[in-house]
Amino acid sequence: MKKILILLFIINQLIFALDISSQKIKNANTLFLKLEEKNIKNPKLTIDSHNIDFFEIPNKKDSYYALVPISYYKEFDKYKIIVSYIKNNKKVFKGINIEVIDGNYKSEIIKVTDNSKVTLNDKNKKRVDKEYKRAMNIYNKTTPKLYIKDDFIYPINSKITSDFGKKRVYNGTLKSYHSGTDFRAKNGTIIKAINNGKIVIAEDRFYAGKSIVIDHGQGIYSGYYHLSKKNFKVGDFVKKGDIIGLSGSTGRITGPHLHFSFRIHGILVDPLQAIELLNNNL
């Protein structure tokens, strides 16, 4: 009987096909997990007591995926991801070890001529706080439907002027890190939707200026900031390549450009790494 139980355990482990994009991950990067198994329910993973759902991979039977965004501020250490699902009324578990490593992001000094954008008065502090809370209420929601149909594109074909993750020193004071990727774009340059989705933010914000945010479904959001013009409103559906607006110099900015951001399950991640990951795996 003992030999039979051991054999069944080995067979179960072989059937439980689980792949991970990498077991060493930089802070502010994203992991892709792929689970292949028949007749299962409620597949999910847990990391640091935080649950993330798996979703069915389009056009692939018995295949599921989950995205694990790693915060910029995540402590550099080893962690365990626990994957679970229900099969034959029993819960099955598997653990995967990962290590979060330093992305070695550089620093840059930024001079903003309008000091009111750096040292905020009470009125602007309240506005920024209100805008942030409203946006996070959106980012922390997960649309079950995946709107994307094929690969992501870049919002603009232009030179990158500031990479994601750089520490931002505004007027001599360390304020934040660069939460997106900046593309060179003079005023009025066409900005395109990187994939299908619904517009969930279309407003003029204190820091980001005229902003468009697209929900691509299943926790994936892209943001386009400092625009001079917005072509869509909240609730509109856009397709990949649609012109969502024109670049500009609105908000806290030193000159015209496009600030492009990416969130997964509410967490800001490196947009270019996330796009490459999704294009290679979905």
From TrEMBL:
M23ase beta-sheet core domain residues: 177-271
Gene Ontology molecular function: any one: metalloendopeptidase activity
Signal peptide start-end: none
InterPro entries registered for this protein in UniProt: Cell_wall_metabolism_enzyme (IPR050570), Dup_hybrid_motif (IPR011055), M23ase_b-sheet_dom (IPR016047)
SUPFAM superfamilies: Duplicated hybrid motif
Cross-referenced Pfam families: Peptidase_M23 (PF01551)
Taxonomy, superkingdom: Bacteria
Protein name: Peptidase M23
